[in-house]
Design a protein that fits this description.
Elements lengths: L2 E9 L7 E9 L2 E6 L8 E4 L4 E4 L1 E6 L15 H12 L5 H17 L2 E8 L5 H14 L2 E6 L5 H8 L5 E7 L1 H4 L2 H14 L3 E5 L3 H7 L7 E5 L5 H10 L2 E4 L1 H7 L6 H6 L5 E2 L12 H15 L8 H6 L2 H6 L17 E4 L10 H7 L5 E6 L2 E5 L2 E2 L4 H4 L1
Parallel strand pairs: 1-4, 1-5, 6-7, 7-8, 8-9, 9-10, 10-11, 11-12, 12-13
Antiparallel strand pairs: 1-2, 2-3, 5-14, 14-15, 15-16, 16-17
Helix pairs in contact: 2-3
Length: 390
């Protein structure tokens, strides 16, 4: 049995009180015990004293294949993004290109403390592309849910959906707002038959149509929703549908004001995503802070959510949005050991979740475990050379 003991850290479980000077024992990828003074026995001991221990961050929406395009669209509105990135760059990707790009994006995510990513993968153009994308995620060490972006190839969608383990499948569709309605209905039904999450971009108007057609449900994930009215938020919440906002990119590319506050006010639990790195950083610290700032301005400091709320959005709410809430997202006995050790807050006493959101950056991500495996330790990636990948 492979055991790791994180010794003496300040543990933010997310689903309970913070626990200072606490150990976390991991065995064969599973969290098996949490408490002070756990016996070391035959475990590999990682000294966590002075560090904050949190669940790994969950990026609920990213187009990972765009990692090599970072910085190419800093002033690019949606009117240019569609023809230039999706219309010109994407068709030029060979299967090998898709694999290399996905590996780069996955390792960048890991380096920044993102242990799980929902990849809205436009790059699954052919079965060979799909294989290259999946292989890249397996090689990277990250946990990934790969949203197949070519639903027309039903055989390949079914093949991806059958995967189990650290890299699993989902369905990424245009949906009834940006694509054909009847096609969207058929694809949602296919996803339900296969038991996978179905993700779609949406501004907001499609929500009521989905509700009226009886198609909303907890296996449906809607991304952005910048134009959703408050009454329609209630429909999503009642159906248990997942919602994801990508505030940094939405602001930069002109989607409109983030829907996070409207969704949360209506009882939703919005998750966060990076979306694209052509004009944004590949980490969730910026979206957490962006959302916090927006909410403070929108609601006023007295009514705004505590900063720690954003850590929930980037962990358990993200896990829920990608269909993995039973496995990851909190530091809980029985869940998979996707964990971070963060430095920079050893001076504090008391709770630290809000300070993680407000004050830390990817530079503070010192150690990363995925499924109990160390993939980054003491500030260094253990299995990949990020400079060489770039």
């Amino acid at each position: 049995m492979r055991k790791t003991l994180l010794k003496g850290g300040h543990v933010i479980t997310v689903d309970g009180p913070e626990r200072p000077d606490t150990d976390v024992l991991v065995a064969d990828g599973v969290i098996t015990a949490i408490g002070p003074g756990l016996p070391e026995l035959d475990a590999t001991v990682v000294d966590a004293s002075g560090y904050v221990v949190t669940p790994g961050l969950v990026d609920a929406h990213r187009h990972v294949w765009q990692a090599p395009l970072r910085g190419l669209g800093v002033d690019m509105p949606m009117s240019r993004y569609l023809p230039e990135v999706l219309g010109a760059a994407l068709p030029g990707y060979t299967a090998a290109d898709a694999g290399r790009a996905t590996l780069l994006g996955a390792v960048e995510a890991l380096d920044a403390g993102v242990t799980t990513v929902f990849d809205w993968s436009n790059a699954t153009l052919t079965p060979a592309h799909t294989d290259a994308v999946v292989d890249a995620f397996e090689r990277s060490g990250i946990r990934a849910v790969v949203g197949h972006g070519n639903a027309v190839d039903e055989a390949d969608v079914r093949r991806l959906a059958a995967r189990t383990g650290r890299v699993t499948g989902a369905l990424a569709i245009l949906g009834g707002e940006y694509g054909d309605w009847d096609e969207a209905v058929a694809q949602i039904r296919l996803g339900r038959e296969l038991g996978v999450v179905v993700s779609m971009h949406a501004g907001g108007p499609v929500v009521r149509r989905l509700h009226d057609a009886g198609l909303l449900g907890p296996d449906l994930q809607l991304v952005h929703l910048n134009a959703i009215p408050a009454d329609d938020v209630k429909l999503l919440v009642a159906a248990g549908a997942a919602v994801v906002v990508t505030p940094t990119v939405e602001a930069v590319m002109g989607h409109g004001p983030s829907a996070y506050g409207r969704l949360a006010d209506g009882g939703g639990r919005p998750a966060l995503g990076v979306d694209v790195v052509i004009n944004a950083t590949p980490d969730l610290f910026e979206p957490m802070r962006d959302t916090l700032r927006t909410e403070r301005l929108r609601a006023g400091s007295a009514a705004a959510p505590p900063a720690a709320t954003m850590l929930r959005a980037a962990t358990i709410d993200g896990a829920r949005a990608v269909g993995l809430a039973d496995s990851i997202g909190t530091i809980t006995v029985g869940k998979r050991a996707d964990l971070l050790l963060l430095d920079g807050l050893a001076n504090l006493t008391g709770e630290r979740a809000g300070a993680v959101v407000s004050c830390l950056t990817p530079a503070n991500v010192r150690t990363v475990l995925v499924d109990g495996h160390l993939v980054k330790h003491e500030g260094r990636l253990l299995h990949h050379d990020l400079s060489a990948l770039r």
